[in-house]
Write a structure and sequence with these properties.
Number of helices: 14
Low-confidence stretches: none
Strand content: under 5%
Distance between the termini: 35 Å
Largest sheet: none
Radius of gyration: 18 Å
């Protein structure tokens, strides 16, 4: 049992779960917008998400304590391997897709400087995820339809909402200088903010040519996760269950 827990913790700590969630969001876009699945794109998205999240998550720890990498060699191995795989398949993508990824990479470079601005940090992460999982796959469509733009806005809204439980959980350890939403406005108003964003996410679906009613169930699940989030929840509540929402959504669409 201890070994299974260690493997599960490694799966979460190495950002493999979030990588799968980002991949799920990309495949959701392909299903909703009826875009042919691009295996090279999916591989880049997954492995780039893994290495990207690991860098953002552990760069501060590494700079403060160089011994960290010697105590966590498997995370380093996963990160380096993911980087190499992502680079290999990156060069198999079309030029326009490569340029889009480079643009997002440049934006992500500003993340360390925006961490002290809690609201901007959350919106930056949501914007990048929306562009990666909707904007880049939409480049495969000709022409880009109104459904693509609506899906892009929806993705930004739902990602911001799904980040609310993380903001609440982290508020107990976050530096007050970060000025995150819970720190500035309190936990209850932050929950209300996250829930309100689900409303336009849901309503925009019905302006599409082919609406998917799966968004209704996703909206309900997201609201429930926000409602029950607190600083006292286990880390698995956010790191596994909340991050599993896109994976559940992907499986739901795949079975319809």
């Amino acid at each position: 049992m201890t070994m299974l827990k260690r493997l599960f913790d490694f799966y979460l700590n190495a950002s493999l779960h979030i990588g799968l969630a980002i991949l799920a969001l990309t495949n959701i876009t392909e299903i909703i917008l009826k875009i042919p699945s691009q295996i090279n794109l999916n591989i880049v998205v997954f492995f780039a998400a893994v290495v990207g999240y690991n860098v953002l998550k552990y760069v501060d720890v590494f700079t403060r304590n160089r011994q960290w990498m010697y105590r966590n060699p498997m995370i380093i191995i996963v990160s380096v391997s993911s980087f190499l795989v992502a680079c290999f398949y990156f060069f198999k993508l079309e030029t326009v897709t490569q340029l889009a990824f480079i643009g997002i990479g440049v934006i992500i470079c500003f993340y360390p400087f925006l961490r002290k601005y809690g609201l901007l940090k959350m919106f930056l992460v949501s914007f990048c995820i929306a562009v990666i999982t909707v904007g880049i796959p939409a480049l495969m469509t000709t022409p880009v339809t109104i459904d693509c733009y609506l899906t892009l806005v929806q993705r930004f809204l739902i990602v911001v909402s799904l980040l609310i439980p993380f903001e609440i959980y982290d508020s107990k350890t976050d530096d007050p200088m970060l000025r995150t939403l819970p720190q500035q406005f309190g936990i209850h108003p932050t929950k209300i903010f996250g829930m309100l964003l689900v409303i336009p996410f849901l309503l925009l679906e019905f302006f599409k040519t082919n609406p998917s009613y799966s968004v209704l169930l996703v909206s309900i699940i997201t609201v429930l996760f926000i409602h029950f989030s607190s600083v006292r929840k286990s880390k698995y509540y956010t790191s596994f269950w909340v991050e599993s929402v896109p994976i559940f959504w992907w499986l739901l669409l795949s079975m319809i």
